[in-house]
Amino acid sequence: MLExxxxxxxxxxxxxxxxxxxxxxxxxxxxxxxxxxxxxxxHYLLRVEVPGLGPENLEVRLEGDQxxxxxxKREEKRTxxxxxxxxxxxxxxxxxxxxxxxxxxxARLSKGVLEVRIPREKRPxxxxxxxxxxxx
Length: 136
What we know:
Blueprint: H1 2-5, H2 9-24, E1 30-31, E2 35-39, E3 43-49, E4 58-63, E5 66-73, E6 88-95, E7 106-110, E8 113-119
Parallel strand pairs: 1-6
Antiparallel strand pairs: 2-3, 3-8, 4-5, 5-6, 7-8
């Protein structure tokens, strides 16, 4: 009966399924892991959720002023009756705070959470710079 009321239902369904496949399919999708950044007096602590990944599947590197975390969770080939686990490439780049040191970073993986300790250096506070507003 729905086909009589809305004859485009099957076309609409196909378009929606294709869009979902593009967004969540295996082809080129990049996952952004969930994270949090906290600070202490002498360091920052970046915590990133990477369940199912081991140190051999992760890369942590500095690129200029960015800390990059990259990895891949590969799907095992086997017969599945249910599959809700997300597989694929993860990538996230974090802009380092101005007082972060680029030396002495430490990365540790435990129970699916990657922790990156970023040392801080003491810097004198910069006074605000007033920018004149021109009319016109």
